[in-house]
Amino acid sequence: MKRILLTLAFLLSIFNLKAADITTITDAFKKGNASTLAAFMDAEVDMAIPGSSGKTNGKDAVARLNAFFNSSKPTGFTVLHHADKKENGFFVAKLPASSGEYRVNITYRTDGGKAIIQSIRIE
Q1: Is there a domain that residue 60 lies in?
Q2: Do the domain assignments include residue 44?
Q3: CATH of residue 61
Q4: Which of 63, 79, 67 has its CA nearest to residue 30?
């Protein structure tokens, strides 16, 4: 009986760990909608996209993504790997676009179950 209770307590503790919801972020990349990402940008974002790299504020990060999406219209977005650890997480995705296929790496911190983007790398 003690073993069953310990197992039940362990399972309940696992279910209480909530991963950040990245659905809105992935949908925005799939549609090439950078303005939707504005609500998910940290105050400072480390960016590396074709033609530009470096730290920038959230507003400029959205502008850079918008320029990228205008020149490389996304045709899909597939998350290949996603991991959360305590208050941080990351995901790796494939971004097919009109100008080729890209690999996207995004790291974020979690704030109240919401993913706040800290870095974006598109290669």
Answers
A1: yes
A2: yes
A3: 3.10.450.50
A4: 79
- The amino acid present at 51, given as its one-letter code, is G
pTM, rounded to two decimals: 0.82
Locus of tokens 């990349």: 29
- pLDDT tens for residues 5-27? 445 445 444 444 556 899 999 99
Checking DSSP bridges between strand 52-57 and strand 100-111, what pairing results, if any? unpaired
Q: Which of 68, 65, 56, 53 is nearest to 99 (CA)?
A: 68
Structure-block tokens of residue 120 = 């974006």
The domain in which residue 102 lies consists of 19-122
pLDDT digits (tens, 9 = 90+) for 44-102: 999 999 988 999 999 999 999 999 999 999 999 999 999 998 899 999 999 999 999 99
Contact 77, 91 (CB under 8 A): no
| Domain-located, residue 70 | yes
Q: How many domains does the chain have?
A: 1
